[in-house]
Structures are given as structure tokens and as C-alpha cells.
Amino acid sequence: MESPRRTRIVLGEVATRRPAPDRTRAELTAQTAIGEALVKGLVRAQLALALRLALVVVTGLGALPLLFAVAPAVGAVTVLGVNLPWLLLGVLAFPFLVAVGWAYVRWAERNEQDFLSVVRRPGP
After folding, report:
1. What are the phi and psi torsion angles at 98 (to 5°)?
2. Residue 36 in contact with residue 44, Cβ under 8 Å?
3. Which residues span the membrane (predicted)?
4. Which residue in 9, 13, 86, 99 is a FRET match for 55, CA 20 to 30 A apart?
């Protein structure tokens, strides 16, 4: 009686080396102290940006009524038949707010890209 012929099967994928797991991503996923510190840093950066730009808006728009109260002659100026306070607060305030919003989005995305570059940086 003949024994069945043996066939040898070699799996090439098993022999390949798998890359080491990314420690930073693991820290974020597991919500460890290091991952929490990274996320808190991002949140702090976004909050600081929001507060700085809010200060710009409050200063820019809040200073106008103060200027008109302190120097009533400036408030009496007319441009194209419209009083300067109406023109500044009623018309030009909107492009100012759009510009501040655009700057916020641009800088917030830059903060997020910086965060991602830290997360994606290869470990030691």
C-alpha cells in the first residue's frame, strides 16, 4: 500500500515582517495619559486662537461706538450721504467679520495639520 504523497505549502505573507504598531495612535485610541495630553494641547491651541480672534472682533467693533462717543465730530461725518457710524457698523462690519471667520478657519486647520503631523510622525 502506497502512502499519500505529501505536499509542502509555503505562505510568503506569513514570513513578511509587519510594521511595528504606531505608539502615538495607540495612545490616542486607548485614551492614555499621553493621548489625552496630545488632545488637550490641540484643544488649548484652538481655544487660544478663538479667544485671540474674539478679542480682535470686540476691539475692532467695540472701539467704533466708543470713538463716536468720545469724538462726536467723527460721528457727524457723512460719506455718500450716509453717516459714518451707519456705514462702518451697518455695512463694513460684515466684510470684517467674514475676514475674521476666514482667518479662524485657516488657522484652525493649520493647528489640526500640526496635530496630525505629530501623530503621524514615525516613532523611535
Report:
1. -65, -40
2. no
3. 49-74, 86-105
4. 86
User: Cα separation of 56 and 32, whole Å?
Assistant: 36
Give the whole-angstrom CA distance, residue 99 versus residue 107: 12
CA distance 83 to 109: 39
Cα–Cα distance between 119 and 124 in angstroms, integer?
Answer: 13
DSSP structural state of residue 16: S
How far apart, in whole angstroms, are the C-alpha atoms of residue 26 and residue 32? 9
What is each CA distance from 72 to 19, 65, 66, 86, in whole angstroms?
71, 10, 10, 14
* Separation CA 82–CA 91 (nearest Å): 11
Give residue 80's pLDDT. 83
Q: Which amino acid is at 9?
A: I
pLDDT band at residue 23 under the 50/70/90 scheme: low
Residue 16: predicted pLDDT: 57
